[in-house]
Structure formats: C-alpha cells, structure tokens
Write a structure and sequence with these properties.
Elements (H helix, E strand, L loop, with lengths): L19 E2 L6 E2 L5 E2 L4 E2 L1 H6 L19 H21 L7 H7 L3 H5 L5 H4 L7 H22 L1 H22 L9 H17 L4 H4 L1 H14 L5 H20 L8 H26 L5
Antiparallel strand pairs: 1-2, 3-4
Helix pairs in contact: 2-3, 2-6, 6-7, 6-8, 7-8, 7-11, 7-12, 8-10, 8-11
C-alpha cells in the first residue's frame, strides 16, 4: 500500500490533499478515505480492524480501549490536594484551614492578583462526599472521552471547562469562596452531549442527557450549590467539543491546530475570569 511522507497528502492517495487525520492512527486521509467515527474520522484500515465505537447506552459509561492515564492523574491530584487540606486543617467534613484559604476561588483575591485561584479552587473540595461524587463522575466520563478525544485534547477540554466554571463564578457569585471540580465535570458532560449529537447519536439513549438535566435540577434546587460554576463549566465544555468536532473535516485543520485552539480558548477564559473579578472588586486592585 503506498505511504505518503507528507502530512498534507493522503497516505493511500499521495496525489490527493488530506483534509484530516485518522483519529486512531493519526495518518492523513483525503475525503474519499474518511470513515465517520463517533468522534471525527477513521482511515479505512482502522475502520476495518473493528467497528467504529458508538458511545450509546451502557458504553457511555463502560470505558475506552486505551488506558485513561490523564483521567487517573487528574483524580490523583484532586485526592492529594484534599488530603493535604485535611492534614493542614484537621477538619475532614468541610473546606477550611490554610490550604483552603490559599486556594479557594474568591473574587476579591483574584482581583488583587491571585489569578491562580481560577485553577486551584477546582482541586479543593468541601468533604469526602463532595470529592467522591465529582471523582466518580470524572472517572466515568474520562473512560469514554479520553480515548475518543486523545489525551492532550481531553486534558485541554477539562481545563477549558474548569476555567469556564471559574468565569461563571466570577460573573454570578464572585464574593463567595468556591471550591470543587464540579464545573470541570459539568463541562465534560456538556462536551459528551455535543460529541454524541455531532456523531448522530442520542444523548438520551446513552443516559448522559438525563444525567445533565438531573444535575442542573440539583444545581438550581439546592442551596449552596454554585450555579455559575456548573453552568459556566457546562457551556464552556460544550463549546470546546463543538469546535473540536466541527473542525474535523476542515481542510488545513491539523491535530496541532485543534490543540492550539483549545489552549487559546483556555487562555481567553482565564483572562475573562480575571477581568470579571476586577470589575466586581475594583478596590482590590
């Protein structure tokens, strides 16, 4: 089988321009060779090795074919930070102590220059139940999305969702110290809904649509839940996934370009979060 040495031409047809890369082997393919997969396109060789993965029904929470290492690392970081907070505070049932005071997402401190709080607050939790529920959902979603998106893209979608949640907090409730990975997890749920819709799948059949609705009901019904963090993360994750999937068939949009676009989106959300904090607390400058 002919092999192309250029990322700009199809590996099966060296005389044709490749508009996209195979999501499994990353080889460049032309429109004639593109086989629709659950996310993006596969080359004919990869599509022939096994049926395209369809993220519906039980498969939505059943795990991918590759080890979700990034998901495990993110969960490990969240658990480690929680243990650190508890050890320093001696209080396992609520967010308190020096680690909480240092890292919580809090508008006045962000406006004063603690920009890192847009990120650090997403690794703090108010108790074992809070941590456990977020990590459980992150594990379920990560098993599906990390293999589908690729490790780097998955991490970037997580970061975009996290920063979208922090921006939502700065817009709706910047004066309340906020902690938790919920915004990032909501973003992953929103991203999975978009990816399934773009692939012609039903989020209701997979169960992710019901999960999103249920969590939104809880968000608005229970006191003390960060509406801005949840909704902001949900919208940011959905937007990131739409941009990722919509760019799959565009000429000249390489994997590196998609990674750069997601990174740029994360930077813009971080800047917007800082600006929102500064507008809410101008005297902190």
């Amino acid at each position: 089988m002919p092999q192309s040495t250029s990322k700009d031409t199809c590996y099966r047809h060296p005389d044709r321009v490749a508009g996209v890369s195979c999501q499994r082997c990353d080889r460049p393919i032309c429109p004639s060779c593109m086989v629709q997969a659950s996310v993006g396109f596969h080359c004919p060789d990869c599509a022939g090795q096994r049926r395209s993965k369809v993220v519906t029904g039980r498969a939505a929470f059943g795990g991918g074919s590759r080890d979700p290492i990034a998901t495990k690392v993110i969960i490990g970081l969240n658990v480690a930070v929680y243990v650190w907070m508890v050890v320093r505070s001696g209080e396992p049932t609520r967010a308190s102590g020096p680690v909480f005071e240092w890292g919580a997402t809090f508008g006045p401190f962000i406006a004063a220059g603690d920009w890192y709080r847009l990120v650090s607050g997403a690794f703090l939790h108010s108790g074992v139940m809070h941590l456990g529920m977020n990590m459980f959902l992150l594990w379920l979603l990560g098993q599906v999305m990390e293999p589908a998106l690729g490790r780097i893209n998955f991490v970037l979608v997580y970061v975009v969702s996290m920063l979208g949640g922090s921006l939502g907090v700065m817009l709706l409730d910047p004066g309340s110290p906020t902690v938790g990975a919920s915004g990032a997890v909501f973003g992953l749920m929103g991203a999975l809904v978009v990816l399934q819709l773009r692939a012609g799948q039903s989020p209701w059949r997979s169960g992710i649509g019901t999960l999103v609705v249920l969590n939104l009901v809880i968000t608005f019904a229970l006191p003390g839940v960060s509406v801005g963090g949840h909704v902001g993360g949900l919208l940011a994750g959905a937007l990131a996934a739409f941009g990722f999937s919509a760019s799959q068939g565009l000429k000249g949009v390489t994997p590196a370009v998609r990674i750069g676009a997601l990174a740029a989106m994360a930077v813009l959300l971080a800047v917007a979060g800082v600006v929102a904090a500064q507008q809410a607390f101008p005297l902190a400058l």
